[in-house]
Design brief:
The complex is a heterodimer of chains A (113) and B (382). Chain A starts with 7 loop residues before the first helix and ends in a 13-residue tail after the last helix. In chain A, a hairpin with a 7-residue loop joins strand 1 and strand 2 (74-80). With 113 residues, chain A is of the alpha+beta class. Chain A has helices spanning 8-20, 26-37, 43-56, 82-100; strands at 59-66, 74-80. Chain A has one domain: Arc Repressor Mutant, subunit A, CATH 1.10.10. By secondary structure, chain B is of the alpha+beta class. Chain B has two domains: 4-65; 137-345, no CATH class. Chain B has twelve helices and 15 strands. Chain B has a 15-stranded mixed sheet that branches. In chain B, a hairpin with a 2-residue loop joins strand 5 (183-186) and strand 6. The longest helix of chain B has 29 residues, at 97-125. Classes of the chains: A alpha+beta (113), B alpha+beta (382). Chain A binds chain B through residues 25-27, 30, 42-45, 47-48, 51, 63, 66-71, 73-76, and chain B through 1, 5, 25, 27-36, 38-39, 56, 59-60, 62, 64-65. Chain B: The chain crosses the membrane at residues 101-126, 359-381.
Chain lengths: 113, 382
C-alpha cells in the first residue's frame, strides 16, 4: 500500500476534525487546537490544510448553518471520510510500532567512563 | 450580543477580501474572519480586532484562495492538452533530426541577424539622447550652392566661434569640436586613438559621469580626459590621474597629463571618441595662418542657449555672421546660416553634409531593418 503521507499539521487537524465530529469548521478547529494543545495556528493555514485534506479525500464537507457572528454567512463543515479515518489509524499504528521498538529506559553508565 | 454587533470589521480589508477571493470560498473564509473579529473584539477591544482582521485578510491571500478567470476544471483539461501537444512536438523533433536542425539553426541565425540590425539602428537613434541639456544645444550649419543645388553643411568656418559672443548674444555656452586621430605614446608604445579637440565649455554643455578627476580639467591646456576603456587599456590598475602621455599630431609631439577619466559612457555620447583634449593645444590653433586659411578651415560648432530661449531671435545675428564670412572669404559664399537642434541631428542625417551623423542615411537604415525582419519572418514560417 502506498501510504498516506500526512504532515504534522495535517495530522493534527485531521484528528481535531474527528474530535469535533459534526461541528468542525475553520474557527472551531482553531479554538479546539488552542484548547487542547495550547498552540496558536494561523486561520489561513487551517483553511489551506482543510481544503488540501479534502482534495486528498480524507475529509468531506458541506455548507452548514449561518450565525449572526458570521454576518449571516454559512460555515463549511468538515467530517472525516472513511479514508481519513483509516489514515489516522495507519499513522497511529505506525507510531505505536516504532514506539514499541524503543529500548527500555535504563541507566547505562558504560558510556561515561 | 447586540452590543458587539454595533461594530463592524474594517471596510477596506473586507472589500479587498471580496475583491480577490474565489467566490466558491468567499463565504466560509469571510465568515470565519468575521467570527474571529468579534471574538477578538470581545477579548481585546476594537483596535486590536480591526488590526487582526486586516492581518487575517492578508494571510488569506494565497494561491488557493485567489479568484481566477478560468475554473480549475478548465485549466486542468487544457493543461493535459498542452502537455499532449508538447509531447507530440518533441517526438517529431527527435524523429526528424535534419529538419529540426535546419529550423532551429535557421531561426537562431534569423534572430541573431535581427538583433544585430536592431542594435545597429538603435545605437544611431538612441545614442546621446540622455543628455540633460539636449533641448538647449544647437549646432551651427550653413547652406551653400553646390553642384547639384543647395547643400547644408554641419561645420562652419572656425573663426565664427570667436564672433558668437558678440553677434549671438545670450548664448550660454559654445564649443568647437575637432576630430583627429593623433598617435598616442605612453610607456614607449604607440596607439592610434580617436580624439576630439574641444573647448572647455564642452564639458559644461554635455554631461558625463566621471570616474576620477573632474570635468573642468580641460581648462588646463596640458590635461586630457580619457574614457574608461582607454584608461584601463593604458594604465590597468594604476591610478590614472597625473599620468603623462604624449600625443603626436602632424609630426608635432606634445606632452599631456591625465586630468580625468569618464565613467562608462552608456550611450551618453553623440560623438565617437577615446579622449578629450583642449582645442587650444592642437597645433592647428597655435599655427599662424593667413586670415583666408582660417576661414577656410571648418569645425563643428555647438551653442547652448539659456532655458526657454527661442532660436528665432538669432536670425539677424546669423545673417550678420553670414555677411562677415562672405566679405572675408568671397570664394566660398554662404547663402545663409542656421541652427539645428541637437535632438534633431539624427533625423537630418541625409540633409547635412559633414555632420555629426553622416555615416548611415535613413534609407540604408530602413533597408537594414527590413532585411533583418524579412529573414526573421522567413525563418518563422519555415
Amino acid at each position: 500500500m502506498k501510504g498516506y503521507h500526512l504532515g504534522e499539521l495535517e495530522e493534527l487537524i485531521l484528528l481535531t476534525v474527528g474530535i469535533l465530529d459534526q461541528e468542525a469548521y475553520g474557527v472551531a478547529v482553531l479554538e479546539e487546537i488552542k484548547n487542547q494543545t495550547g498552540r496558536k495556528v494561523n486561520i489561513s493555514a487551517i483553511h489551506t490544510v482543510l481544503s488540501r485534506l479534502e482534495d486528498k479525500g480524507f475529509l468531506k464537507s458541506h455548507m452548514g448553518g449561518a450565525t449572526e457572528e458570521r454576518g449571516g454567512r454559512r460555515k463549511r463543515l468538515f467530517t472525516l471520510s472513511a479514508t481519513g479515518r483509516s489514515a489516522i489509524e495507519e499513522v497511529k499504528s505506525l507510531r505505536n510500532k516504532l514506539y514499541d521498538q524503543l529500548p527500555p529506559l535504563a541507566l547505562d553508565f558504560s558510556h561515561g567512563q | 450580543m447586540d452590543s458587539k454587533l454595533k461594530h463592524h470589521p474594517p471596510k477596506w480589508p473586507d472589500r479587498f477580501l471580496e475583491f480577490y477571493c474565489n467566490p466558491n470560498r468567499l463565504e466560509q473564509i469571510q465568515g470565519d474572519a468575521y467570527e474571529l473579529f468579534y471574538m477578538d473584539l470581545e477579548e481585546k477591544g476594537l483596535r486590536f480586532a480591526q488590526f487582526r482582521f486586516a492581518i487575517h485578510v492578508l494571510s488569506f491571500f494565497r494561491w488557493r484562495n485567489i479568484k481566477r478567470t478560468k475554473s480549475t476544471y478548465h485549466t486542468f483539461s487544457q493543461g493535459a492538452m498542452l502537455k499532449n501537444y508538447f509531447k507530440i512536438g518533441w517526438r517529431n523533433l527527435i524523429k526528424q533530426k535534419g529538419i529540426t536542425f535546419i529550423s532551429v539553426f535557421g531561426l537562431a541565425c534569423a534572430v541573431g541577424c535581427c538583433m544585430v540590425a536592431y542594435l545597429f539602428i538603435a545605437q544611431i537613434w538612441f545614442r546621446g539622447l540622455n543628455q540633460p541639456n539636449k533641448d538647449e544645444i544647437y549646432q551651427l550649419t550653413y547652406t551653400a550652392e553646390g553642384e547639384n543645388g543647395l547643400v547644408t553643411y554641419g561645420s562652419v568656418a572656425e573663426p565664427i566661434s570667436e564672433l558668437i559672443p558678440e553677434k549671438l548674444n545670450q548664448v550660454q555656452n559654445q564649443t568647437r569640436v575637432l576630430r583627429d586621430f593623433p598617435i598616442l605614446i605612453y610607456n614607449n608604445e604607440s596607439y592610434q586613438q580617436r580624439s576630439i579637440y574641444i573647448d572647455p565649455a564642452f564639458m559644461e554643455m554635455f554631461t558625463y559621469r566621471m570616474d576620477y578627476g573632474f570635468a573642468g580639467a580641460l581648462k588646463d591646456q596640458d590635461q586630457v580626459i580619457l574614457t574608461h576603456e582607454l584608461s584601463e587599456k593604458l594604465f590597468g590598475d594604476t591610478h590614472p590621474i597625473g599620468q603623462e602621455l604624449e600625443l603626436v599630431v602632424n609630426g608635432e609631439e606634445k606632452l599631456y597629463k591625465v586630468g580625468g577619466v569618464l565613467a562608462e559612457l552608456n550611450d551618453m555620447d553623440m560623438f565617437n571618441f577615446d579622449l578629450l583634449v583642449n582645442i587650444e593645444s592642437h597645433p592647428y590653433s597655435t599655427e599662424d595662418m593667413s586670415l583666408e586659411d582660417e576661414w577656410n578651415s571648418e569645425l563643428w560648432t555647438f551653442i547652448q542657449l539659456n532655458k526657454g530661449q527661442d532660436i528665432s531671435q538669432f536670425n539677424s545675428g546669423l545673417q550678420e555672421l553670414t555677411d562677415i564670412q562672405n566679405q572675408i572669404n568671397p570664394d566660398k559664399p554662404y547663402l545663409n546660416m542656421g541652427l539645428v537642434a541637437y535632438s534633431d541631428l539624427i533625423y537630418k542625417v541625409d540633409e547635412i553634409e559633414n555632420g555629426v551623423r553622416d555615416f548611415l542615411g535613413l534609407g540604408p537604415q530602413i533597408l537594414l531593418g527590413s532585411i533583418g525582419l524579412f529573414i526573421l519572418i522567413l525563418a518563422v514560417f519555415n
